[in-house]
Amino acid sequence: MEEVGDKHVVQFITDNTRACVSAGSKLIDKRKHLVWTPCAAHIIDLMLEEIGEIKIVKETIQEAKLMSRFIYNHSKILFLFREQSKKKEIIKLAITCFATDYLAVDSIR
């Protein structure tokens, strides 16, 4: 805002960490004309993280991870998987983004 000026900024989007929430609240208090929007992707990621703690969901994700590792660690099985799934790939899981767990499970179907 310093670079373009207050009058040229109408909205700002932040992550949902405590520091960003605190800073966003302070900024809104000072500049009443601004609209503050928390990051939707981060909110969805937090929701998926909580859903991932439900017992049946957690078990399904663990089974999908085991299947994925098994398939990728055995070249003949990987070849057969690709052949039978029309060259479909299983999405590799990421440590930090919970959405990849659900995408990986969906890619095995």
TrEMBL record:
Q: Show the InterPro entries listed in the entry.
A: DUF659, RNaseH-like_sf
Report domain DUF659 positions: 1-65
Q: Which Pfam family name is an example for this entry?
A: DUF659
Its recorded name reads: DUF659 domain-containing protein
